[in-house]
Amino acid sequence: MPDLSAFADPGFLAVQCLNGLTQAMFLFLIASGLSLIFGVLGVLNFAHGSLYMLGAYLSYTIASWFVGPPATFWVALVLGSIGVALVGGIIESVFLRPVYRREELEQLLVTYALVLIISDLVKLAWGAENRSGSRPALLAGSVDIAGRDFPTYNLFVLAVGPLVALALWLLLRRTQFGRLVRAAANDREMVGVVGVNVKGLFTGVFMLGAWLGGLGGGLAAPIGAIFPGMDVEIIVESFIVVVVGGMGSLGGTLLGALIIGQLNAFGILFFPRFAIVFVYVLMAVVLVIRPWGLLGRPVTRG
Amino acid sequence: MERRLVVRAVAGVALLAVPLVLPQFYLLLSVEILIMGLFAIGFNVLMGYAGMVSFGHAAFFGVGAYTCGLLLKKTEAPFVVAFLAAPVVAVVVAAVIGYFCVRLTRIYFSMLTLAFSQIVWATAHKWYSLTGGDNGLVGVPIPAWLIGPRAFYGFVAGVSLIVVAVLWRIMEAPFGRTLLAIRENAERAEFVGINVKRTQLTAFALSGAVSGLAGGMFALFTRGAFPEYAFWTKSAEVLIMTLLGGPHVFLGPALGAGILIVLNSVVTSYTEYWPIVLGIILLALIYVFPGGMTRMFLGWRGAGRPAGATRA
Questions:
Q1: Cα dist from A7 to A11, A14, A149, whole Å
Q2: Chain A residues with CB within 8 Å of chain B CB
Q3: Which DSSP helix (H) or strand (E) runs through A134?
Q4: pLDDT over 60 (residue B306)
Q5: Integer Cα distance of A68 and B52 in angstroms
Q6: Are strands A148-151 and B137-138 parallel, antiparallel or unpaired?
Q7: Residue B257 near chain A (CB below 8 Å)
Q8: Among A32, A240, A288, B71, which has the minimal tally of Cβ within 10 Å of its Cβ?
Q9: How far apart are alpha carbons A73 and A70 in whole angstroms?
Q10: Does position B290 have pLDDT exceeding 80, yes or no?
Q11: Can you list the alpha helix ranges (DSSP code H) found in A91-151?
């Protein structure tokens, strides 16, 4: 029997719910990049978890360069995520560009090879031990939520998620870049035919996706431990989010992240042993009933 | 034709006998190659012949390993029963999982196989009272006649030879050809009266059975079963072996298993950074030798067999 006594404590439930939301924001950041890249480039990027890991390590190291100044965290977050975007640009233009016309499986294998290579490079550069970043002074404290402490930093993450979602939405809906991205997601041949620089567009999209992953990693650095292996851990969860929400759908990714976040937070509370099974069952059920995801559209790519 | 088969059978048996004269280290390495090679050949029934890329084949390997291991450790079941239960249980699990998976295509198919296999992994990982959880199931007893590397190798080689021969016969029969037809054009296959989904499901179950059998043997080999056997990285491993050897040749995946396991053994004796080496091999495979090693040896279109399995 699951332990139901937790229901008697509203503060605890509220905090648990907020924990789930915080996790959802990380998942959203990573999965939105994954989904964007899949939607436009048609590539399922296994290396997205690696970009997230790279974001965490880069931010950690950059932060350690400027110990002292109050803006350290913010500088590290910005520079770290931009660094990951640059790495993404290299990955796209060097490794993926030659295989766009090949089978999906080969593209996938390229990204899997990058997972292996990046994980070892990270071990070589930073060693195998766990590390953890520090929170900015401004957000170091905690707030009182119905009688329980909740870290201020997590509240900040809760604000960043929706802001990024909004910014992405505006970018995709209101700018010329966004129009091109959406057009390319529908029919990349045609976009090329009408004279758009598809190569540049693909690189741009991959860099944006990588930046989102790197930002997620940079934000995770101060709260979760940074360790080699965080890439493999997050990538399957991000796949679940994308599959549940609908591949290529931004709103779906947000919804998927929220569902998985809550499922993890409360699943672990009531069924500590089998919580891990729930997310996979959910993924399977969604795929069986609506293979294109909760908010995705049933289109088959040519 | 008959003579060619006889020549091949003799050559196969001779090749399988070679490791018996090797030092123990290589003999054990050969056992691992045979088991993983069989797993990869089973996996390739789906990937190479049916064109369905499973991301979750570790599930059947794991189910086979745990079935055999649990029956030997926790029951009085005779060895033959425990061993044969591995493919039988795997085929049942594969039929259930496959029933849902074959309705989907491409990436959705792959994702659903991944989801199911992770359910199997999580169950093995968390069900302590049955599987030993993340500690794994250890100390699986094996019969006295199997103890000793030579005896064990002989057992694995014999079983592999029989299974591969039977599977080869099946894939050369109309069933194998039907799968190729579906892979090339499912719609057209449907028009000529083939029950596409049922054929795919049969292939799924068959593939699962072979994978489960390989898993059962692996449990005997390691005298245990561990959650990693069902984890998605194991599925990636068998996929890589298959691509490395070449999915368009019947025995290609086994060659891939051999190459990967030997390389792993060599590289890890020098450095702990095996993943980076594997990553570079994969990139080379994609950019320099597309189609796998067998295609490189046999010529671009795969002069070897099965000719029909060559990708257009």
A1: 10, 10, 18
A2: 44, 95, 98-99, 102, 104-106, 109-110, 112-117, 119-121, 123-124, 232, 236, 239-240, 243, 247, 273-274, 276-277, 280-281, 283-284, 287-288, 291-292, 300
A3: none
A4: no
A5: 55
A6: unpaired
A7: no
A8: A288
A9: 8
A10: no
A11: 104-126
Q: ipTM above 0.90?
A: no
* CB-closest option in A99, A106, A120 to B276: A120
Give A54-86 as a DSSP string: HHHHHHHHHHHHT-S-TTHHHHHHHHHHHHHHH
Alpha-carbon gap, residue B273 to B279, rounded angstroms: 10
How many angstroms separate the Cα of A203 from the Cα of each of A46, A78, A97, B66? 17, 20, 9, 46
pLDDT for residue A170 is more than 50: yes
Residue whose C-alpha is closest to residue A62's, from A49, A77, A82, A50: A77
Q: Which two tokens stand for residue A32?
A: 């939105």
Task: Output the CA–CA distances (angstroms, integers) from residue A275 to A164, A271, A285, B133, in the order listed.
Answer: 29, 6, 16, 14
Torsion sign over Cα B269, A114, A232, B58: negative
Q: Above 70 in pLDDT, residue B307? A: no
Query: Which DSSP letter does residue A226 get?
Result: B
Contact A284 B280 (CB under 8 A): no
With a CB cutoff of 8 Å and minimum separation 6, the contacts of A134 are A63, A73, A222
Q: Give all strands (DSSP E) within B147-258, no chain letters.
A: 224-225
Confidence at residue B14, expressed as pLDDT on a 0 to 100 scale? 78
**Average pLDDT for B81-88:** 95
Could you identify the residue written with the tokens 């001779």?
B14
Which residues of chain A lie closer than 8 angstroms to B290, CB-CB?
A: 102, 106
Interface test with A, best of B118, B239, B274, B281 (most A CBs within 10 A): B118
Tens digit of pLDDT for each residue in B199-244?
Answer: 999 999 999 999 999 999 999 999 999 999 999 989 999 999 998 8
Q: How far is B157 from chain A (nearest CA, A)?
A: 31
pLDDT of the residue at B7: 81
CA distance B190 to B180: 13
Amino acid at residue number B206: L
Closest residue on chain A to B103 (Cα): A288
Q: What is the pLDDT of residues A218-265, one digit of tens each?
A: 998 888 778 888 888 889 899 999 999 988 788 899 999 999 999 988
Rounded-to-10 torsion of CA B69, B71, B75, B80: -110
Q: Residue with structure tokens 């599977």?
A: B167
The arithmetic mean of pLDDT across residues B71-96, rounded, is 94
Q: What value does the mean pLDDT take over residues B103-129?
A: 90
Return the domain boundaries, chain A: 20-228
Residues B212-223, buried b or exposed e (16+ Cβ, 10 A)? bbbbbbbbbbbe
Which residue is listed with tokens 């809906």?
A173
For tokens 């069924």, what's the residue?
Answer: A271
Residue in this structure with the two tokens 């109309």, named with its chain if needed = B174
Query: What residue type is assigned to position B225 of the chain?
Result: A
Strand, helix or coil for residue B300? coil
Check pLDDT > 90 for residue A272: no
